């Protein structure tokens, strides 16, 4: 055996020794019978010593896994678990709405899951979100730019363990705060940034996500540039008849369109903002038509979030999901406090522009009753790209009913509103 072949063999053995492997989950507590889809859960170690253990749920397409697109889904926050997406947004299961009596909440299947037509990797990120954890104390703050590199490394390692999906069309998807992560991640992948880790530089042993595999990205209610989105809340409130014409005109004139971080000297502007707050403080900002109530109340639409906490913190559930025992304490839907975070990407508009120039498709959608990321803010930054309109504003339909409105732009971007929809993982 030549020296080169020996070295290759040794590296293959090392790679095999360090490789994490997912586990197939056939049954979940709370669901009656075997799961009617293929679910895999597991960890991928990221970083020089793989101290960051990133937890994922992988659901194979229920249609044609060999040819259907492969998606990675990133929930917002930062710090919200992708389990929320699986059970509340676009996954194959949902929590049954029922009064909690001390027993494990029940799960039911959905008819609207994206996994009907796509393979999806739901990732808990950043570390500290959901079941992802670090083996050692973090030395540096988690950041937007850092997460882009972490997720890119995760993808490369995940694909090296699932080579059967190399040729599938690949899309990066997410909502809410992932609007800050997805566009730069698409750019990172498209530019072919490779890992510095030796095991992933040697082409004999792994392949990166290649630009030819990457087709585009999807974002729902995406945070894009926070200052302009915050300033859009007052125009949104006026358009939705939450404040009077007179108050809105006074706010525009006195505050000059800047409603955030108003200096203490501008007392007249502050007085008018206080009047605006009195009109809107009791609203559910994630869906202005819903009551703003305690989620532990069975009368509240968000009561299922309370049931989710009970389900995800059950030891039987953790064992079924193959969660490493003792790796985290209490599971939280959104873990805002545990991670010091550096918000170092101020705007992702330049990334959208670069990705469009590179020819990637994109779908941007807004729930039109979400006041956290108002649709008018999203429409404003899309207009700033100066794309020509190729499919003018029109309704889109579900069962002969208007479900929202859409517009198509050059550079393969589509924008859509979803009537009365909302996202609550910001």
TrEMBL record:
Molecular function via GO: acyltransferase activity, transferring groups other than amino-acyl groups; serine-type carboxypeptidase activity; sinapoyltransferase activity
Keywords per UniProt: Disulfide bond, Glycoprotein, Signal
Keyword Cytoplasm recorded: no
GO biological process: proteolysis; secondary metabolic process
InterPro entries, per the entry: AB_hydrolase_fold, Peptidase_S10
Signal sequence extent: 1-21
Keyword Disulfide bond: yes
Family membership noted in the UniProt record: Belongs to the peptidase S10 family.
Name under which the protein is recorded: Uncharacterized protein
């Amino acid at each position: 055996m030549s020296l080169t072949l020996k070295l290759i063999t040794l590296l293959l053995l090392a790679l095999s020794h360090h490789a994490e492997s997912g586990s197939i989950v056939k049954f979940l507590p709370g669901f009656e019978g075997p799961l009617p889809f293929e679910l895999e859960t597991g960890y991928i170690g990221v970083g020089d010593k793989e101290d960051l253990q990133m937890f994922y749920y992988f659901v194979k397409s229920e249609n044609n896994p060999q040819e259907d697109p492969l998606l990675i889904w990133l929930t917002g926050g930062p710090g919200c678990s992708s389990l929320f997406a699986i059970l509340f947004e676009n996954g194959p299961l949902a929590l049954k709405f029922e009064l909690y009596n001390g027993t494990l909440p029940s799960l039911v299947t959905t008819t609207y899951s994206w996994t009907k037509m796509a393979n999806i990797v739901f990732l808990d990120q950043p570390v500290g979100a959901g079941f992802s954890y670090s083996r050692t104390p973090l030395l540096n703050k988690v950041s937007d730019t850092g997460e882009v590199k972490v997720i890119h490394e995760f993808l490369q390692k995940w694909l090296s363990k699932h080579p059967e999906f190399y040729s599938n069309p690949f899309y990066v998807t997410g909502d809410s705060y992932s609007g800050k992560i997805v566009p730069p991640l698409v750019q990172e992948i498209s530019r072919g940034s490779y890992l510095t880790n030796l095991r992933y530089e040697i082409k004999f042993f792994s392949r990166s996500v290649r630009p030819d595999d990457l087709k585009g990205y999807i974002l729902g209610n995406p945070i894009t540039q926070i200052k302009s989105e915050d300033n859009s809340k007052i125009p949104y409130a006026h358009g939705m008849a939450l404040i009077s014409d007179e108050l809105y005109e006074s706010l525009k004139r006195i505050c000059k369109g800047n409603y955030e971080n108003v200096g203490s000297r501008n007392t007249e502007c502050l007085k008018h903002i206080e009047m605006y707050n009195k009109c809107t403080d009791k609203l559910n900002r994630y869906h202005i038509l819903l009551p703003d109530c305690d989620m532990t109340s069975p009368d509240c639409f968000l009561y299922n979030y309370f049931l989710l906490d009970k389900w995800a913190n059950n030891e039987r559930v953790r064992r079924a999901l193959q969660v490493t025992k003792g790796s985290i304490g209490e599971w939280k839907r959104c873990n805002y406090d545990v991670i010091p975070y550096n918000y170092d990407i101020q705007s992702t508009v330049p990334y959208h522009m670069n990705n469009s120039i590179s020819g990637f498709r994109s779908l941007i959608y807004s729930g039109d009753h979400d006041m956290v990321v108002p649709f008018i803010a999203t429409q404003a930054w899309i207009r700033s790209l100066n794309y020509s309109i190729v499919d003018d504003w029109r309704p889109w339909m579900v069962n002969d009913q208007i479900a929202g409105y859409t517009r198509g732009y050059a550079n393969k971007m589509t924008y859509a509103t979803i009537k009365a929809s909302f996202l609550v993982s910001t």
